[in-house]
Amino acid sequence: MLFLQLVLFVVLLPGGGSEDDFQETITFRIILTTSFYNHSWTQNQGSAWLDELQTHGWDNKTGAFSYLQPWSKGNFSNEELMEVEKLFYTYSIRSPSIYHNHVTEWQLEYPFQVQLVLGCDSHFGEASVGFMRIAYQGSDLVSFQNTSWWPSPEGGSRAQQVCTLFNQYHVSSEIVHKLLTDSCPRFLLGLLDAGKAYLQRQVRPQAWLSTGPSPGPGRLLLVCHVSGFYPKPMGVMWMRGEQEQRGTQRGDVLPHADGTWYLRVTLDVEAKKAAGLSCRVRHRSLGGQDIILYWGHHLSVYLILLAVTVPLLLLIVLALWFKKRCSYEDIP
Q1: Regarding the domain with residue range 2-199, which homologous superfamily does it belong to in the CATH classification?
Q2: Which segment, 75-84, 115-124, 151-160, is predicted with the most confidence on average?
Q3: Are 205 and 253 in contact (CB under 8 A)?
Q4: Coil, helix or strand for 149?
Q5: CB-based contact 159:152 (threshold 8 Å)
């Protein structure tokens, strides 16, 4: 019964989705991590993610879900969501006993972590059969395929023993199969529809150039910054004319708090060869009109601003001095 409860709450756990019109594959994942510190002390952390966007949090003390997006409930009713919360909380309290009771048999060593990942993929608006995997200490242990649990090749004898136990619950396996092939994909498509406006939005990037720390004598580290764009796929390359520069180094795409993204792309070049280089930015929101920033042009703009600003400031200072002097001369 315990494993059956695990199955029910995990598959029904609500998640978030996105429309596939702008991305070939969208992956929705539910992650539950249980940390085993000793035989009497465990801690659970749960969340749900749409690719890299977190759609749900979970309070392990009250068992309540937090809906991080306005559309995170999808098309589930409040009654369904409350039932899922109860199942999830029940599992989080009772499931650790499965591993505690088999510490010796499965050669588990405190402290350790067990992570369950369940999810669905959506390809161009069509949801695929769901998946369920369990990992031990960050390494794959077992996965559910078709109607039964299968050991991971890297799981060794421990994975074989876990499968032997889990596959004894035939009714549970049938429920897992049904929920992964029906409930999870159906719920994902409901979320994709509920979050369509948000997930299909397009936000134009802002781009600018700068220099980074000097790589060495006579060299420059050119930096192309691209910020505030959505969706995530972004093409940035340092160019000379129409030729891509092979030394281009792409950083990680980092999230902003508002759901948009930031990317930093660098190029290490000889200072004397920097002239004529440009940074090309390609993104869906630009409608085919790439942003091209030429190295040296931004410096020219700064020089122009200085050339205009400095004389203007001098004139203002001179005028104030002259006015002040005249006021003194008018005093009898």
Answers
A1: MHC class I-like antigen recognition-like (3.30.500.10)
A2: 151-160
A3: no
A4: strand
A5: yes
